[in-house]
């Protein structure tokens, strides 16, 4: 079990850095400090090892999701907290970043977002029904916003992790973005002054 865990950890780091096509069992065996025979004993193919890494990423994410849901908070607050926790996982867990990347590069496999996105939609439905969202903020649209925020957080991290450039925590950055999203960015009566297109104009574009 310890050997298997070490292999999955090494494979996660390799898949995260080089992607599915750029990673080989030989590279993983070197990173893990094991013989290729030890690798293939547990995982006869790269496909099976990639499956295990994706499963590990989803398992870690599901545990975090369960923990966030254990707090008795308003549904919209839980959605915000969940996205912040996803950002933390992406920043700290190579298995999670690998699961995201492998989901993109291996069509037909279970997507990482399938672990948490249905729950987000259910929470946003609850938020809408209980008046936590504006009438015009439909749950489907806010779900799309959440998808964009998490995708953006991953892109931000992927461009910086492994470099020598100092960067801001993805969680701190996402907190500020959520503050803007929840408060709104247009100044009061700005559209009446002609500074911004009206909501009606945007809807007809």
| Oligomeric state of the chains in view | single chain
What distance separates the N and C termini?
A: 57 Å
Question: What portion of the residues fall into strands of 2 or more residues?
Answer: under 5%
Helical percentage: 55-70%
Shape: elongated
Structural class designation: mainly alpha
β-strand number: 0
Largest sheet: none
Radius of gyration: 20 Å
Q: Give the mean pLDDT.
A: 89
Helical stretch tally:
10
Low-confidence stretches: 196-205
Helix-strand string: HHHHHHHHHH
Keywords summarizing the entry:
205 residues, mainly alpha, 10 helices, 68% helix, elongated, disordered C terminus
Structural description of this entry:
The protein has 205 residues and is mainly α. It has ten helices and no strands. Helix 1 crosses helix 2 and helix 5 runs antiparallel to helix 9. The radius of gyration is 20 Å and the shape is elongated. The C terminus is likely disordered.
SSE layout and pairing:
Elements: H1 2-18, H2 25-32, H3 36-42, H4 46-69, H5 75-92, H6 94-105, H7 117-129, H8 139-158, H9 170-183, H10 199-204
Compact summary:
By secondary structure, this protein is mostly helical.
